[in-house]
Specification:
By secondary structure, the chain is of the alpha+beta class. The protein has one domain: Aminopeptidase (3-Layer(aba) Sandwich), CATH 3.40.630. It contains 5 helices and 7 strands; from the N terminus they run βαααβββαβαββ. The chain has helices at residues 16-29, 36-44, 48-56, 101-115, 129-134; strands at residues 7-10, 60-67, 70-78, 84-92, 120-125, 138-145, 148-156. A 7-stranded mixed β-sheet has the order 1-2-3-4-5-7-6, sandwiched between helices. Strand 3 and strand 4 (84-92) form a beta hairpin. The longest helix is centred in the C-terminal third of the chain and has 15 residues, at 101-115. The two termini are 28 Å apart.
Length: 160
């Protein structure tokens, strides 16, 4: 089996336009369970300038996955001073799925969040609860976000 040459790195400023394009595409296609008005708001909240500010913020983490020089995935999270980290976004291009790119992004994100002092990391997912449970996340609650049922899950960083 050939070795996958995907690399995971913190975002470089030159990659922000590609990240923004991938983010918009992901929101429109893979997060289409949200109403269009909510998708528009999410995209506005992640304009290139906002991504740039997040990239340089000391408590934000943006990781990118690259294969053959192309951006193929990303993870966006944070660790507020209270130690309760959040994973906001994890996305891998569908053509690159099944190669552990998402798992590698997730693992690296959790490790970096732990290094920044996170004692736990939470996330909200619409349809990937089983995936996150296999990675050690525990279901906590479910509630509607903009009319869509979301599962709230947490991960204790001592497990990393």
């Amino acid at each position: 089996m050939p070795v996958d040459k995907t690399i995971i790195i913190p975002i470089k400023l030159r990659d922000i336009p590609a990240l923004h394009r991938m983010f918009v595409s992901a929101v429109r296609s893979h997060f289409a369970y949200f109403p269009a008005i909510e998708q528009d708001q999410v995209i506005r909240n992640h304009r290139p300038l906002k991504l740039l500010l997040a990239a340089i913020h000391p408590r934000r983490i943006i990781l990118t996955a690259h294969h053959g020089g192309e951006l193929v995935g990303y993870a966006i999270g944070s660790v507020p001073k209270n130690g309760k980290g959040q994973l906001f976004w994890l996305f891998v291009d569908p053509s690159r799925r099944g190669r552990n790119t998402g798992l590698t992004l997730l693992s690296r994100m959790l490790r970096m969040q732990s290094q920044l002092g996170a004692t736990e990391v939470s996330l909200a997912t619409h349809d990937h609860r089983r995936y996150y449970e296999r990675q050690g996340f525990v279901w906590c609650d479910a509630y509607p976000v903009d009319g869509v049922r979301m599962d709230i899950m947490t991960f204790k960083t001592g497990q990393v």
